[in-house]
Structures are given as C-alpha cells and as structure tokens.
Amino acid sequence: SRPSILIERTDVDGADPEHREVRSILVDTSTDLRMQALTHGVRRVDAILFTHSHADHIFGLDEVRRFNAIQHGSIPAYADERTNRDLRKSFAYIFDPHTPQGGGIPQISISTIGGPFCLGSLEVIPVPVFHGKRLILGYRVGSFAYLTDCSAIPDTSWPLLEGVQTLVIDALRHRPH
Hints:
It is built from five helices and ten strands, in the order ββαβααβααββββββ. It is α/β, with parallel strands linked by helices.
C-alpha cells in the first residue's frame, strides 16, 4: 500500500488528565489510509506529521474525519512551509472558515515546522532529505527515524541521524532516481 506509518508509544499510561500525552503519531495521510487503518485496527491519531505534499502522501486526509469523531476534536498536524501551503491549496475547504461545519470535514490544526519540536513529552526532529531535487522531511523520534522517498541525504542531515537504532528508509530501485 502507499507510504504512511503510525508510530505508537507504549510507555505512557495517560493517568494524568491535565497532561495530554501523545500515543499515536501518523506520518502522512496516504490515499490508502482508510484501508490501512481498518486492516491494522488503528483507533486513534494524536498528531499527524507530513513529509511532503505529493498525492500519495496527502490524499487520504479526508479519512481523518473518523478519528475526529472518535476523539471528539481536532488533530494537530505539522508540515514544512511548502507542504503546509500545498495542503491549504489542495484542501482549501478544510481551512476556509466559511465552509459549513459538520461531520464531513477533517478537523486539523496545522503548524509549520521550523526545527525540532515536542509532542507532549516526545521530541520530534525533522530530518531534511532529498526526494529527487526537492527537499522534504523525514522524522526522528527517539532512536527511530523514518525517511520516505529519499534519494539523497544532505551532509547537514547526517548529524541528526547519529545514534539512530532503527532506520526506515525506502528502496525504490538499485540505481539513483
């Protein structure tokens, strides 16, 4: 299926109602999101990280509506400036305050990433990588890193990957693309 992953934390108990802890982070909303969520029993999404705005990474965004209904609220989302701009253009109805509200519109609050940030107590480190000639984002969370559609890793990004124990990186083909 299309590229998208769910990072789930099992080290939080959620006992403190005053402190909303992030348990499930969805990376990209692939066009296959609905089937992926049903197949793998995904029941909640606490945050969404976007790597870039190509259709296979964002066109499942409407499927977020089900998580909004289950969780009774908006989901924070994060993207680089270009992806944020592209999402606002491709899904203008989501961000237009004049769009009639209801169960048919995904509820997300999107922020532009400017560097490392925290989701609850979890640090998220954006890792710039090349997808062809376009600079996109991979993500590091603890000792785990996810680099999708990666054709090259810039020299400045290598230090961000030091100490990573698990790296998920695509392998499109043996020759450069």
